[in-house]
Task: inverse folding
């Protein structure tokens, strides 16, 4: 709801159809246009209306002032130098009207003069301590500054509008929305997320515009994710950890890449849009030299890692997907020699895997590994016992063996022995050995449940008893027992595709992801242009429950995906707009 439209659009009565947009200013509309709302929850006792004349007597508003309010509103949004001069004249002309002071603060905000904008809001509150929009704006500023006690003092200890303004018998819908918005932001940042959610639900019973509530609800959702993540991290403290974060500099960083087949150079400038004829042409090359070339490509990715990392923005997806292409092709070729090259890539650091594979590591690398796993489980066993690897590399190997067992029931006894040997190994290991990661163990238990390997329950019980397995993946040990008893196997059996079909699917996924990214950026631009009339005035950086996450960082929800591919965009917007023009 843009502020200007408040003057020309009537509210909708519950159960009634939307009235036509008036063509005259709202203060000329007949009184029957007013709506009496029927709120629920903690707002149930309030008398709420959309009568814009509600505060005329308090601030001495008349038609002439409303005309100036409209002009100043437009000037404040434009942020032009001449606008500030004009708004200041109205502040002097109408010293009893707090709206012009608020608009002067907005004018400073639009010009990027945050300190002046905050000072103007403080001045407004000092002169008009009971001006509701000034109170909520300053409360939101204090919340953003992490001055929570002052914010609560402004909003009132009960966070109830009728308690904060006890002399009022009736409130305008915009006053209620603005006050509740400030309270919800306060509750989010004090991590009282259940109360924040209750207030959003209550507001939905009276608000025509649901979009800003959706944004607040996303903020609550992300707050819950952050809270859950913090609890998970607290549980993980003291549990086994294994990490290989920083990629060492290769002594062969200047080594030139030499290939038998120039046809493979296409892998260095294409993303997931490789055509069927290109893939088939590569796979038709002599196997021995093709495998050597794919090994050389992986070796090159290690040697030149720091160069590609430094120039990541220049290369991006289409020119940094060559490791992913190599793994997919190795999966089609199968064999122990191909597996060695794949494991060489998976033995690298977290930042290496993030640069070259990103989300694909946890989304589809299992498939080529599954194709190479048959007959090579002993080699995968050795990999799983190695120390100081990136934990998700072992997660992907376990997923590959899980899928092998599901697609090849005849190999299930061998798969069961593989898991049994590893769990015994981890059960006897010390966290100081850095051969296992608690999250990895939790996901291995999930794989074992998926395969229905009930014979492994005793060693799973022992791992839980030693505090090695977190409860955030499969639940507590009691829940794991229940799941084994339910015998719900095969819930996560994935389709095994040929390389041509897999590339077609990956290209489709990439197109959808790009479209979603473009839509998110477009929505963000629209938000910045529009703003909320019922949000507090000043835009400030909001205190975060967790440190700021970069777009390419792992998502704090623990999904293993990059933040930009997971929870980015779910935070409540922190931009602020103008108070209503009355």
Result:
């Amino acid at each position: 709801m843009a502020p200007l439209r408040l003057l020309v659009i009537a509210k909708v009565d519950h159960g009634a159809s939307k009235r036509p947009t008036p063509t005259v200013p709202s203060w000329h509309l007949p009184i029957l246009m007013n709506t009496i709302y029927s709120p629920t929850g903690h707002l149930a006792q309030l008398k709420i209306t959309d009568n814009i004349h509600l505060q005329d007597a308090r601030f001495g508003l008349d038609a002439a002032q409303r005309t100036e309010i409209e002009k100043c509103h437009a000037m404040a949004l434009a942020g032009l130098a001449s606008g500030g001069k004009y708004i200041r004249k109205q502040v002097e002309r109408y010293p009893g009207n707090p709206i012009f002071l608020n608009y002067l603060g907005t004018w400073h905000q639009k010009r990027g003069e945050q300190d002046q904008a905050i000072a103007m809001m403080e001045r407004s509150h000092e002169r008009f301590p009971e001006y509701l929009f000034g109170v909520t704006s300053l409360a939101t500023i204090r919340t953003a500054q992490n001055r929570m006690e002052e914010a609560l003092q402004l909003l009132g200890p009960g966070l109830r509008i009728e308690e904060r303004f006890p002399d009022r018998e009736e409130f305008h819908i915009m006053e209620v929305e603005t006050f509740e918005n400030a309270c919800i932001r306060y509750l989010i940042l004090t991590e009282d997320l259940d109360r924040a959610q209750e207030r959003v639900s209550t507001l939905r019973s009276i608000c025509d515009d649901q979009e800003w509530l959706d944004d607040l609800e996303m903020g609550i959702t992300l707050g819950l994710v952050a809270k859950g993540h913090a609890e998970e991290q607290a549980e993980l403290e003291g549990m086994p950890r294994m990490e290989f974060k920083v990629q060492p500099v290769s002594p062969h960083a200047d080594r030139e890449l030499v290939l038998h087949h120039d046809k493979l150079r296409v892998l260095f400038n294409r993303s997931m849009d490789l055509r069927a004829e290109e893939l088939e042409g590569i796979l038709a090359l002599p196997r021995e030299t093709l495998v050597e070339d794919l090994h050389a490509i992986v070796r090159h990715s290690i040697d030149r890692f720091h160069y590609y990392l430094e120039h990541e923005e220049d290369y991006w997806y289409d020119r940094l997907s060559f490791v992913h292409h190599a793994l997919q092709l190795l999966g089609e070729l199968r064999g122990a020699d191909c597996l060695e090259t794949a494991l060489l890539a998976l033995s690298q650091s977290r930042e290496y895997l993030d640069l070259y594979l990103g989300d694909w590591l946890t989304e589809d690398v299992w498939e080529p590994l599954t194709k190479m796993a048959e007959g090579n489980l002993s080699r995968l066993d050795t990999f799983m016992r190695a120390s100081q690897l990136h934990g998700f590399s072992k997660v992907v190997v376990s997923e590959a063996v899980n899928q092998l067992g599901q697609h090849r029931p005849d190999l299930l006894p061998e798969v069961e022995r593989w898991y049994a040997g590893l769990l015994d190994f981890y059960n006897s290991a010390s966290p100081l050995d850095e051969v296992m990661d608690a999250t990895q163990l939790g996901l291995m238990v999930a794989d074992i449940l998926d395969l229905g390997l009930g014979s492994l329950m005793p060693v799973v019980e022992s791992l839980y008893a030693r505090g090695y397995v977190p409860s955030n993946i499969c639940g507590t040990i009691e829940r794991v027992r229940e799941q084994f008893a339910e015998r719900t196997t095969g819930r996560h059996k994935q389709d095994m595709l040929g390389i041509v079909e897999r590339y077609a699917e990956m290209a489709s996924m990439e197109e959808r992801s790009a479209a979603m990214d473009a839509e998110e950026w477009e929505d963000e631009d629209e938000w910045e242009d529009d703003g909320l009339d019922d949000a507090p005035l000043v835009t400030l950086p909001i205190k975060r429950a967790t440190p700021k996450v970069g777009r390419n960082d792992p998502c704090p929800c623990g999904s293993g995906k990059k933040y930009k591919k997971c929870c980015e965009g779910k935070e409540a917007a922190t931009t602020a707009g103008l108070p209503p023009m009355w």
